[in-house]
Amino acid sequence: MSSLHVPKEINLEFGSVQKLGQIASDFGATHLFIVIDAFLTQSPLNYQDQLEQICRKHSLEITCFSDFRGEPTTEHLDEAISKINVCGADCIVAMGGGSSIDLAKAISVFAINRGITLDEIEQKRDLKRLPLIAIPTTAGTGSEATKVMVITDSKSNIKKNPGNPKLIPDVAILDPNLTMSLPKHFTVYTGLDALAHAMEAYVSTRATELSNHYALEAIKMVGEALPRVYDNGKDEEARKKMLLASCYAGIAFSNSSTNLAHATARPLGAHFHIPHGLSVALLLPFVIEFGLEAARERYANIAMALGVERSKNKEELAKDALMIVHRYNERFNIWNDGFKYIKPSEFEESIPTLVQDSLSGNGVLTNQIIPTDADVEKIYKQLLKKVSQYSVN
Ligand SMILES: NC(=O)c1ccc[n+]([C@@H]2O[C@H](COP(=O)([O-])OP(=O)(O)OC[C@H]3O[C@@H](n4cnc5c(N)ncnc54)[C@H](O)[C@@H]3O)[C@@H](O)[C@H]2O)c1
Ligand SMILES: [Fe+2]
After folding, report:
1. Domain named Fe-containing alcohol dehydrogenase-like C-terminal: which ranges (predicted)?
2. Which of 107, 198, 214, 275 is geometrically suited to a Cys-Cys bond with 251, CB 3.0 to 4.6 A?
């Protein structure tokens, strides 16, 4: 049976952030705890001021939490919980990329479940949380529509990603205006993350008819819009398409799964502080190569969604899907950017740990072929070889 978990409401339009006050009032909220990326509170963006104005019109009290940088950790979460315990807000709003939305998801749970641990969240069927409204400002994670939150445990330095359908935000507000300021490099990192979500969801052994629909639509939209937003960040139509693609890709993987590209990328984020989208983009081509034979027909369909001519045979089409992803990495400077974070000798020494961390979670169990330690080691070595070529250029 195919079933689909999605937010109760998704708004997609330029200017839709203006609806926040009304949406929160409809929940009966009186005091919003706004988790906002620190960068977005600064001039010239001043999104915090904009939110305050929108909320004032509806007589909503607000408390902002923006004391965090980078991807969220349990330390950030503890600080936020201390703050919300004092102000007593009754609704959480997230504005930012996946980092802000995931932190907001965690706050919505930990604010009313004293003593719960990240590991317990996945198992708890009747998980309660505060109402949650998500406003993404990157087009990549789709966290506004997913049941997953990614938080690094500050003690173990492991990126944890508990999933529970109760974590899906109640409302997603997709306002493409908010993504127009995203710099080129984050535009492609996050855009390739969305592509990876959709591709991995589509080739997963947990894929369903419903998740496949969202996955293929997302792949098609990324293929059309990502090169356009890379060339011109002010292309409004393409920005809107990327935001929708990211949301669809989120729905796809949240109702199917991600796979080996995410399982191998997560330790790169934790050990080398590589931005999430970049770490996934660096590994995706090698992971596709590993699974190409086993999921040939699926990769052929992906190639067609990316616009490759249908007259080719399945084997050629599947290889084209791989070639397109390699081409994106060249065109969007992914290898060069990867080299800024990966120092070859340090990376080589870490490979055994990276392999162990990738295989320690359940992230590889839905791969068409379950990889061995040696398979994962080979994937990291392929990446090392590739970025090493850039060190001499
Ligand atoms: N919950 C999920 O379903 C899910 C899925 C994939 C990834 N993730 C997690 O999400 C996090 C990454 O999120 P992300 O890729 O969206 O990046 P991010 O939220 O970390 O933001 C990346 C950078 O972009 C900046 N930024 C954000 N919006 C901007 C805008 N409109 N204009 C200018 N700058 C802006 C931020 O300040 C930050 O420096 C990681 O922790 C990753 O593991 C979660
Ligand atoms: Fe991702």
Report:
1. 187-383
2. 214
